[in-house]
Specification:
The chain is mostly helical. The protein has helices at residues 3-25, 34-40, 47-52, 59-90, 103-112, 116-132, 134-150, 156-164, 168-196, 209-213, 224-237, 283-300, 308-312, 318-330, 334-341, 345-378, 384-399, 417-439, 447-458, 465-471, 480-491; strands at residues 92-94, 100-102, 204-205, 248-251, 263-268, 272-276, 401-402. The structure holds zinc ion.
């Protein structure tokens, strides 16, 4: 097999896999069958293919190599993944020893259930299901470690540091500094909310976090009718054709089997991108649409002439999340909130403070998750007693919530995704500070800023998040801009 054949097959299989996932998510197809697609490309996701790109001489070659390595992990763990997905899809949660509800329904209810006592009961039931999946999670984890060892790495962390070209120790030091700087403001925001759940900081079960995150007190402001006009105006003003670009397909339809969570699928960057959403109203709808719009624009406006690898394969997810975070944070601006929803300045300010509070809470959560993962993989990741202790220790300390040790495997994303997210957090705050300086505090109302963004997106996935930050003269890997923004926003509350 040749390099060109490999690239062509990566392109074809990605196209098929992305459309398969999209169809299921959109409610247009009932059963997901990615395993058979991957099997058809078994020759591609193999050590033989990896050998062809053993010594890549350019960035495109390195991306191709990373895509094959990732594909090998997916192929070798597909049976374990399938067993796990099937288990959760069929699992039921027993609440208070009585009523039984499907696992995913219980998780959805946790976000909206107004009674704190019932939320904790739901959390208990959900934890029991996660514990029952422990063995299956174990098999999956063991299979991943096996593949990583086959690549020549004894340590999972070392493998991902090499693959993503990042120094996790350095990142962790900065994140811990930022978290400690912001701890007092975080506590001031989150403690009254924990008290409303009848719990103190450090004692509050994590089952309440999703409900606190949803900010139900502001939902009525974010109406279903107001959603589309607000979004159209936002992107029109920037001169960004989210709603009209021939490469971006918007699916706003309401289908019964459609997953309500917004998502973006990229069969091929610069040629075919799909944004799915099913707006039902509420601030989460607005936020998640803005987030996914950032992804859709980045990939939809990529110039395919830069070649498939640089357009479609990232060094990490940090760069892609930089753009989604940037657009999501437009929705945190009180001026945008007032315009989009029609509330007065005071109310808009209040909502903006709470969105900043949620953002900070999630930042703390991800810092906790990342700390837990680094510690877990520094020792034996298959030791459950140690694993549970490491997970709750790190997450409790970072958030002030009390995590359920039974979630130690469920609540861990593969490939240090937590670090990619956190890098995007730092990078987005730095880039946004620069945009405000360059195009004014409401840069998101100017065509010039839109034009600048459009130029960046032509380059597809070539840069990394920190390159973009350094490129505008801000400090990469630094949390200073994030600290500045959080202190500015949450100072209003004090
Ligand atoms: Zn995203």
């Amino acid at each position: 097999m040749t390099y060109d054949e490999i690239v062509q097959a990566l392109r074809d299989s990605t196209y098929e896999l992305q459309n398969e996932g999209r169809m299921v998510r959109a409610g247009l197809k009932a059963q997901q069958d990615t395993a058979s697609i991957i099997e058809r490309y078994a020759w591609l996701y193999s050590d033989q293919a990896l050998d062809v790109v053993r010594e890549p001489t350019d960035e495109a070659g390195r991306r191709v190599r990373a895509a094959i390595a990732q594909g090998i992990i997916e192929r070798r763990t597909a049976p374990q993944q399938d067993r796990l997905v099937t288990f959760y899809a069929g699992a039921t949660v027993r609440v208070d020893g009585g009523e039984e509800i499907p696992f995913f329904t219980a998780q959805a209810q946790l976000l909206r259930e107004p009674d704190p006592g019932r939320r904790e009961a739901l959390g208990e039931g959900v934890g029991a299901v996660m514990e029952a999946a422990d063995e299956l999670q174990f098999e999956l984890q063991a299979a991943v470690l096996d593949v990583v060892r086959g690549f020549g790495y004894d340590c999972y962390t070392d493998f991902y540091e090499a693959l993503k070209e990042v120094d996790y120790g350095r990142l962790q030091t900065e994140l811990v500094r930022v978290a400690e700087r912001l701890r007092a403001r975080y506590r001031a925001w989150v403690e009254p909310r924990m008290e409303r759940c009848g719990r103190a900081y450090g004692e509050c079960p994590q089952a309440h976090m999703g409900f606190i995150r949803g900010l139900p007190e502001h939902d009525a402001v974010f109406t279903r009718e107001g959603f589309e006009p607000a979004m159209r105006r936002t992107f029109e003003r920037l001169g960004l054709e989210l709603f009209t670009a021939s490469t971006i397909h918007l699916d706003l339809e309401d289908r019964p089997a459609k997953n309500p969570r917004a998502s973006v699928w990229v069969p091929e960057a610069g040629r075919e991108v799909h944004l799915l959403t099913r707006p039902g109203g509420g601030n989460a709808d607005y936020s998640s649409f803005l987030h996914e719009a950032g992804h859709a624009l980045h990939f939809g406006l990529t110039d395919p002439a830069i070649g498939w690898p640089l357009a479609n394969v990232g060094r990490s997810m940090a760069y892609a999340e930089l753009w989604s975070f940037l657009f999501e944070r437009i929705g945190h601006d009180p001026v945008w909130i007032a315009e989009a929803t029609g509330v007065d300045e005071h109310r808009a300010e209040q909502i903006a403070v709470d969105l900043a509070g949620v953002d900070l809470m999630l930042f703390m959560r991800y810092v906790g998750k990342f700390n837990a993962e680094l510690e877990l993989y520094a020792g034996d990741p298959l030791d459950p007693v140690r694993g549970r202790r490491v997970f709750t220790g790190a997450c409790d300390a970072a958030t002030g919530f009390r995590y359920d040790p039974r979630a130690w495997q469920f609540d861990r994303d593969p490939g240090f995704y937590s670090a990619d997210y956190l890098r995007a957090w730092l990078a987005e705050a730095a880039l946004e500070r620069w945009l405000r300086r360059e195009y004014g505090p409401h840069w998101w109302r100017t065509r010039e800023a839109g034009q600048w963004l459009r130029q960046r997106w032509l380059e597809g996935w070539l840069p990394e998040a920190e390159d973009m930050v350094a490129g505008v003269g801000e400090a990469p890997w630094s949390g200073d801009a994030l600290i500045e923004r959080v202190e500015g926003r949450l100072a209003v509350a004090a």
